[in-house]
Amino acid sequence: MILERYFGRRFFMSFLGVTVTLVVMLGLIDLMDELGDFPELAFGQVLGIVLLKLPEAYYEIIPLVMILASVALFLRLARTSELVVLRASGRSALQGLLAPAAVALAIGLLGLAVGNPLVAATSKRHHDLVNSYSGQALSDLAIASEGLWLRQSAAEGQTVIYAARASSDLGTLYAPSFYDFAPDGKPLRRISATSAQLEEGAWVLTEAKIWDLAQGVNPEASAREDAQMTVPSDLTQDRILDSFGSPEYVPIWELPKFIAQLEEAGFSARRYAIWFQSELAQPVFLVALVLISAAFTMQHTRGANVGLSVLTAVLLGFGLHYIRNFAQILGENGQIPILLAAWAPPVASLFIGLGILLHLEDG
How many CB atoms lie within 10 A of CB 60? Predict the structure, then answer.
């Protein structure tokens, strides 16, 4: 146990060192970018934007941190001949990997349980704050079992839109109803249609029926019908999708409920399901990266080309990371099953790392 605690502590300190270094670099780079994007803001406001973005930026590079921390640890152990002493004592070098792998697993689980909700909150706040400083008004969107509700704002008032269902890209609404309100909140008009297509600068409604609610008389008596009409709008599909919420904006603990709600309302939740399963598989992938990094850096420094070994470990880790991202894209597009897209790359990476280690150490 003493040896395991020693290796585990060394690995954790290596992980902290790489983390601090990369976080400082990310913060300084992002600070320069934000100062250029918002020159009119006070430094404190720009710093607030950077601090809100930092958790998301770090969360995305955790695999890189794990690779570099593992390489740094095992190179240091090999240089000080501690691994040679471990082997000479009759213990396999694989046993020295148990503690770093356990620490990597614990870091992955902690990131899943605590880091993911924190990143979801800060990234959503960063997104809203940047749009606010940029003068972009976001639409509000809510999903319910009976359909979706969308709000768009304009100088002459607000429009609340209800639709029973929508296309996957939210560019077309089916059985929509538009409710126009004056700036003081008084209802002005109601429009029902068969469908509404979002085009540049307007909604194009098909088979629309319009009720005038501002006259204070029976709206049905003055109702009229149009085969096609347009309703001005400054919304775009990107802005609606932003209001819909990226998977990164939903905490991991709320994702199952959110996915069930989407499916109940008739929307595709595949993108969210892929993200959920990928987050669950993240700890396994981090352990795999530790094993792969160790496989190429545990050899004695005098008997190997250290630079080539480090480069191979880093490139292989990056390659597996991008293969994982590519599999997620295939899963989002429906080309492969969700579980296969999320779990196959981490599990395959784990077996690759174990295979290389067993071949080099006991082969």
Answer: 12
Residue 218, token pair as written in the block = 């029976």
Q: Count of CB atoms within 10 A of residue 344's CB?
A: 17
Lookup: tokens for 139: 């639409």
| Structural contact between residues 190 and 210, judged by C-beta atoms closer than 8 angstroms | yes
Task: Give CA–CA dist 201/138, Å, rounded.
Answer: 15
Strand-strand pairing, 187-192 and 195-199: unpaired
Name the amino acid, one letter, at 147: G
Q: How far apart are CA 119 and CA 3, in angstroms?
A: 35
* Res 356: pLDDT: 85
The DSSP annotation for 175-220 comes to: EEEEEEE-TTS-EEEEEE-SEEEEETTEEEEEEEEEEE-SSSS-TT
Helix 270-297, helix 255-264: angle, nearest 10: 140
Mean pLDDT in order along the chain per 10 residues (363 residues): 80 93 92 85 87 91 92 82 69 76 93 91 83 63 70 77 77 86 83 88 88 76 84 76 71 86 72 91 94 80 67 88 92 89 94 85 58
Tell me how far apart the alpha carbons of residues 226 and 238 are, in angstroms, rounded to a whole number.
29
- What distance in Å separates the CA atoms of residue 19 and residue 252, rounded to the nearest whole number? 23
CA dist., res. 291 & res. 70, Å (int): 8
Residue type, 282: Q
Cβ-based neighbours of 60, under 8 Å, separated by 6 or more: none
Residue 239: phi and psi, rounded to 5, are -70, -35
